[in-house]
Design a protein that fits this description.
Layout (H helix, E strand, L loop, with lengths): L38 E12 L4 H11 L7 E12 L3 E5 L6 H8 L7 E6 L2 E2 L5 H10 E4 L3 H4 L6 H11 L5 H14 L16 H13 L5 E5 L7 H18 L2 E6 L2 H7 L2 E6 L2 E7 L10 H8 L38 H5 L5 E2 L5 E2 L5
Parallel strand pairs: 3-8, 3-9, 6-7, 7-8
Antiparallel strand pairs: 1-2, 1-4, 4-5, 9-10, 10-12, 11-12
Length: 363
């Protein structure tokens, strides 16, 4: 039995996806963003650097010198971001922009080197053991590659019931019933519960990962590239399932993706990263209409539904090296509008029109 979920926007389906383009959606299609005061999670000045192992000699050296002289990949370099209860937030950027790392920090799979992650106003580092246990139930993460995130030794039933057992939810009989219901919710036949992960197709594995994330009734679901490895028709099905789960369960969703066209169809707000920093945070209704950051302009010009084919917006060059990021604005080596100030001073994220933030000296 499969369940087809309708897009949350209520707009007619687009030709290539089962969700409607942002440019053609009716005014009432997207509910207004929740008030900023109703924030479920905040990131404040978050940094994350991945350093290579220094071995025994390095450990001894740093013990006496009291400093860490290793280099490293500076994946996130000072991000401030809020997630509002009940919204769909899109986190967008090129490969290497730091968006997936940021998603894992938000879900506490990684702890930041500097900065804070606040969940309902409380720093997650200060949680007691029981509070962290509750946090893990209320915040769930969907990994980008479903094949590698599923234990090959566990059947679908054990995969979906594992969290219920750990959190002591229900009896054995009620868990079986609940697992069967989860399979139906994501459009999978409960008769497949005895199968191992390798016996499912890519789209079915992604559905299984979604069912696993929903099994604990989370309040916040962070989905990392939930449709990137799938063909277009299956992408639409996964997106519709996410939207259906958001509507039916009252979830807050963070969708991490490199595909601005896709995110622009479903997210109420979009945060765009480059070089480990936020370039812009913008409500969906202003996308393509505001005076965007130059990087966002180029990204939107390449989007499927933008209608902008300005050849001058095609970017040259490569994204910054995360081991040796440039001084100043990380985008200035590729920016057609960069000035001397951009090369020496990183712009702060400043508020422009209502609800829009941009990190640019000229906006």
């Amino acid at each position: 039995m499969t369940r087809e979920a309708a897009p949350a926007t209520g707009a007619p389906p687009a030709a290539s996806r089962d969700v409607a383009p942002a440019t053609g959606a009716p005014e009432e299609a997207l509910p207004p963003s929740p008030a900023p005061a109703d924030t479920i999670m905040e990131a404040r000045g978050v940094h994350k650097t991945f350093r290579p192992s220094k071995g025994l000699a390095g450990e001894i050296r740093s013990l006496f010198s009291r400093k860490d002289d290793r280099g490293g990949v500076r994946a996130v370099r000072g991000v401030d971001l809020d997630i509002r209860r009940g919204e769909i937030l899109g986190l967008v950027g090129e490969s290497g922009s730091g968006k997936s790392t940021m998603g894992r920090i938000l879900s506490s799979l990684y702890l930041p080197d500097k900065g804070e992650i606040l969940f309902e106003g409380q720093d997650v580092r200060s949680f007691t053991r029981n509070e962290r246990f509750g946090f893990c139930r209320r915040v769930q993460f969907m990994f980008q590659d479903p094949a590698s995130s599923l234990n090959p030794r566990l059947t679908a039933f054990r995969t979906l019931s594992e969290g219920l057992v750990i959190h002591r939810i229900g009896t054995r009989a009620s868990r079986s019933e609940r697992v069967a219901g989860l399979m139906e919710e994501v459009g999978l036949d409960p008769a497949l519960l005895a199968r191992d992960p390798h016996q499912f197709s890519g789209g079915q594995r992604q559905r299984l990962c979604l069912a696993r994330a929903l099994s604990l009734d989370p309040e916040l679901l962070i989905a990392d590239e939930p449709s990137s490895a799938l063909d277009v028709s299956v992408q639409a099905q996964i997106v519709n399932l996410l939207l259906s789960a958001k509507t039916g369960r009252g979830l807050t969703l963070v969708i991490i993706s490199h595909d601005l066209a896709l995110v622009s169809l479903i997210a109420g707000r979009i945060a765009i990263m480059y070089g480990g920093l936020l370039m812009e945070v913008i409500p969906r209704e202003l996308l393509g209409k505001a005076d965007h950051h130059p990087y966002v302009k180029a990204l939107w010009a390449s989007a499927e539904y933008s209608g902008d084919s300005d050849e001058n917006l095609i970017l040259e060059g490569e994204p910054p090296d995360p081991q040796n990021p440039p001084e100043g604005c990380p985008f200035h080596p590729r920016c057609p509008e960069a000035g001397e100030r951009c090369r020496t001073e990183a712009p702060p994220l400043r508020e422009g029109p209502p609800g829009r933030l941009a990190a640019c000296h000229f906006r």
